[in-house]
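During the no-cost extension, the postdoctoral fellow (Dr. R.K.) reprocessed legacy sequence entries with the updated structure-token encoder. One reprocessed record is reproduced below for audit purposes.
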Amino acid sequence: MKISNPNLFEIFTRIWIKRFGNNVFIDEVPGSFWKSLSDMGMDYVWLMGIWKTNKEIVDKYCFEEGLVESYSKALSDWKKEDVAGSPYAIDVYDINPVFGNLERLQNLRKILKKYNLKLILDFVPNHFSAETSLLKTHPDIFLEAGEDFFENDSYTYFRPDLLPGKIFAHGRDPFFPAWQDTIQVNYFKKEAREFMIQTLLRISEIADGVRCDMAMLDLNHVFENTWGSLLSKSGYNKPQNEFWSEAISVVKNKNKNFIFIAEAYWDLEWQLQQLGFDYTYDKRLTDRLRANYVPDIKAHLRAGEDYQKKMVRFIENHDEERAVAMFGEKRSKAAATIISTLMGMHLYFDGQFEGKKIKLPVQLNREPAEKPNNVILKFYNKLLKITKDEVFKKGSWKFIETLPAWDGNTTYENILAWLWVFERERRLIVVNFSNVKSVCRIKFNIEPDENEIELYDLLHNKSYLRNVEEITSIGLFVELKCYKSHIFKY
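Re-encoded structure tokens follow.
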């Protein structure tokens, strides 16, 4: 059964598991860790980077100038042995032996189930490792090119060591240079689609869902725009159906509760939702929170419920800067309150609750020491305890327009507000997402037995008695300091 408005906790597996000792396997992590996540209201655990990769490609592809700079920025004393390669350059979809094997993964799922947690794994549809062993067994699934393409662009096209007589394309995003450590899957080829669908079916037997990396790259029009000249010269025609509609349909026919999460950009989220994705990244909201322009945030949150309930809300993940570093302490707490109390899935990244500031390149296998920020930790402990309540899981959500507190008042535009309703439970969320003290009025309907109503602020453990007629006629008066929030229960 699908969980409404779930919480997803992302773990960078190769980094995280070392905290429990040397040579610890995934099913040997203490149950107390999983219990702590469950107690904080997590529903899903995403073990990022669990699949087998190729050590052989690290020396060849993982010491480019830009990567080396990112290693030094994150880990000043890094050494060559700290570079393990990208977990998104997958050899095959087998468990990386460093973490265990299939049996240990199945044991872990049983442990997670004990704590009411479900397991999400990666699916990287666009590409494999540049030296994947599939080149020996399934070379036909990859995007092959001719000598002329290699001569014109040896950065995008390459000769793999496993098949030096052939030329293939590296995986790529059309707006950036090719990822040198990858090989591109050919989504205009039937054999490739069938192979990837079979891969998803196998994953659906050992996990509860997949987070699909750069899912929009495999849409027909995106793939055609990226590789048009090569596809045309090779005689490939655009398929009639989208890969995702085929794949998701096949998998859900076998396991209806298996969920698909799309990393998605370029305003293609709605299209991916229509193709069957349960959730799609809400990167636009993250960017608008970063820009700190409240009118754009409000416009975003006025979107329809069908769209919003399938969005993945986040302020950090392994691709983004750390929230405290990006927003600052005060604003990160306000942003966290926003994303944690909206419809949809809420994504949190390992280290976020402790207020970590260093963004670690995914190629590294060692993390720097960072002291936890106790202010941030205390804040998340409280926020997540509040949002565990079933009103945030089962309730209905409504955006509320803030109103001027008086003629000429403009700071009301800085304040965001919405309401959750479930049976007799109500939660009113109010956030001043600006760097100045702001005031507004908020009008909402209530049916109390008395002339006064008690609004209890769960974030600050403070009660307010307010006149019902005033609230329903001119609106509740709210005054908030910069980046402060209320979560009222009434």
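The chain has a mean pLDDT of 96. The domain at 396-489 is CATH 2.60.40.1180 (Immunoglobulin-like). The remaining legacy entries will be reprocessed before the final report is submitted.
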